[in-house]
Specification:
The complex is a heterodimer of chains A (110) and B (115).
Chain A lengths: L3 E2 L3 E5 L4 E7 L4 E9 L6 E6 L3 E5 L2 E6 L4 E6 L8 E9 L5 E3 L3 E6 L1
Parallel strand pairs in A: 2-11
Antiparallel strand pairs in A: 1-3, 3-8, 4-5, 4-9, 6-7, 7-8, 9-10, 9-11
Chain B lengths: L3 E3 L3 E4 L5 E7 L5 E8 L3 E10 L2 E4 L6 E7 L2 E6 L8 E8 L4 H4 L2 E2 L3 E5 L1
Parallel strand pairs in B: 2-11
Antiparallel strand pairs in B: 1-3, 3-8, 4-5, 4-9, 5-6, 7-8, 9-10, 9-11
The chains are: A mainly beta (110), B mainly beta (115).
Amino acid sequence: GQSLEQPSEVTAVEGAIVQINCTYQTSGFYGLSWYQQHDGGAPTFLSYNALDGLEETGRFSSFLSRSDSYGYLLLQELQMKDSASYFCAGGRTGGFKTIFGAGTRLFVKA
Amino acid sequence: DVKVTQSSRYLVKRTGEKVFLECVQDMDHENMFWYRQDPGLGLRLIYFSYDVKMKEKGDIPEGYSVSREKKERFSLILESASTNQTSMYLCASGGAGASGSYEQYFGPGTRLTVT
């Protein structure tokens, strides 16, 4: 089947670096997106990887390896406001359907 | 900035009622999506639309229908609400083509409770 797996929770300290992994079990995915969602808020788009490699946007970077069906989101210089849920999402070839992972809850401690 | 609005933040309905959830986007996006979000399950696609009057089923369309009569508006309809449809409903929009699916803009969500 088609699914994306990510850890349910990650805890890190303010100022540290944290990596949130996403593995997917499907053929026919093109690219991987990442979204952030604060409690009570809407998901907001963070990044998209269409090709293998690292994409950097400020403190956030995202990586994709299509041969390994694996990607990750890297958050540097963690801040308390980064405490949120993070979702990876894969676009499926042949259409516009997007499938989301169950989300990783990030707790940033002082 | 893209703005996606949903008609209600909170809604309480009784079993068997017909429920309409409205979504409006102001960025002239071709693609619009309806998801439901449940704890531990992430976001699951109910329906999406890639053009006016065009729609396609997502992964969990049963018990739902949609309407897109105008480009900026996408409605989700629960024909006969049931308790297992209690959930957070999120609408999203995206531009034309593949980018419209990988970069989506979400509304604030409607928390629907069916009693």
